[in-house]
Amino acid sequence: MDPATFIGKGKAEEIGKIATEEKIDIAIFDDDLSPVQVRNLEKIIPAKIVDRSGLILDIFASRAKSKESMTQVELAQLQYMLPRLTRQWTHLSKQFGGIGTKGPGETQIETDRRAIRKKITHLKEKLLDIDNERTVQRKGREEHTRVALVGYTNAGKSTLLKLFSDADVLIEDRLFATLDTTVRMVQLSPGRKILLSDTVGFIRKLPAQLVASFRSTLAEVTEADLLLHVIDVSHPQCADQIEVVEKTLEELGVAEKPTIYVFNKIDKVKNRAAVRELTERYVNSVIISASRNINVPRLRDALLEKLDEDTIVETVVVNQSESRTIALIHQVAEVLKKEYEEHTVEIRFRVSKKNYERLRRALSKSAR
């Protein structure tokens, strides 16, 4: 990599010649460029220079619809823009003094940087408030088993969420169609409910600013009990995309969470041998087509099997007068059998390990 122009001056001049001949407006680099490299390239190539992070941030900005996602994207854009302000202005030599400035003279660029830093601080405070609200919401859902959909962008996560929950979510065949987390209650079987959340899609070399500003959205992943890693098995770079997602999960500190690999879009695959190799490599895997509802019942069964690994089955006898305890068992556990005697009721239930302690305390109180 050339520290001055990233690709070397000769190659930059070659691109500059093509840009002139073809009347090209934008040159996009599939990597991050330093502010100096962008400035030098703009002197050689007569087109707007956009690097990978800049392009992804632009896509995110065009997709953001909710107040939260718009705030997150704006923060990421300002953090990205701050060190690159030097190329945004033609009046950088202008100096002025007066009340509110740092000295007898200050360049416009310094004023703009201060304004951006102030805006960044304001947006961070705003996101902190949103994060606190989200934390309160998640605390109210702690008793439920939580499953998060993760995966490369455009792998089919939202389609799967809609299939399981009939949620009214945006489904489009394009990158980053979903930026906001959607959480829906899903009935997997009689007496068995989970909270299923759809999260923002990952991508190779995701800008650090986005990962930082989307921390409240990604908290759904970090606090989930189980991950459904949705993979577009028809994509030519399918294996690379799996690695990208796994690396991102590692950075979030959730790589060790129980995971089911969901190989989606099987209806678009011609080479089934390659798919078999992947399923052999990733043992907890299911092959489906969410859009055509192929093999989805098998995924539901796999999900139940995986969740059962983290449960306890127990039988208790409770006085019929202990209505609160009986209601709590129905609320946090799956009741398998219930038999009434004269004054008592025998209940056999399956409960997650995280809810078992709470239930055990309630049962011990009712036994006194």
- Low-confidence blocks of residues: 87-105
Number of strands: 13
- Sheet-strand content, in percent, reads 15-25%
CATH superfamily of the largest domain: P-loop containing nucleotide triphosphate hydrolases
Biggest sheet layout: 6 strands, mixed
Task: Walk across the major sheet and give the strand order.
Answer: 6-7-5-8-9-10
- Alpha-carbon Rg, integer: 27 Å
Domain module tally: 3
Distance between the termini: 73 Å
State the shape.
Answer: elongated
Which percent bin holds the helix content? 40-55%
Level-1 CATH class name of the largest domain: Alpha Beta
Taking all residues together, what is the mean pLDDT? 82
CATH topology of the largest domain: Rossmann fold
Q: Helices and strands: which structural class?
A: alpha/beta
Order of helix and strand elements from N to C terminus? HEHEHHEEHEHEEHHEHEHEHEHEEH
- Please name the CATH architecture of the largest domain: 3-Layer(aba) Sandwich
Count of helical regions: 13
List keywords for this structure.
368 residues, Rossmann fold, 3 domains, six-stranded mixed sheet, three-stranded antiparallel sheet, 13 helices, 45% helix, elongated
Structure write-up:
The protein folds into 3 domains: 50 residues, no CATH class; 165 residues, P-loop containing nucleotide triphosphate hydrolases (Rossmann fold, 3-Layer(aba) Sandwich), CATH 3.40.50.300; 56 residues, no CATH class. Helices cover 45% and strands 20% of the residues. The protein is built from 13 helices and 13 strands. The strands form 4 sheets. A 6-stranded mixed β-sheet has the order 6-7-5-8-9-10, sandwiched between helices. Strands 11-13-12 form a 3-stranded antiparallel β-sheet. Strand 9, helix 10 and strand 10 form a beta-alpha-beta unit. About 5% of the residues have low confidence.
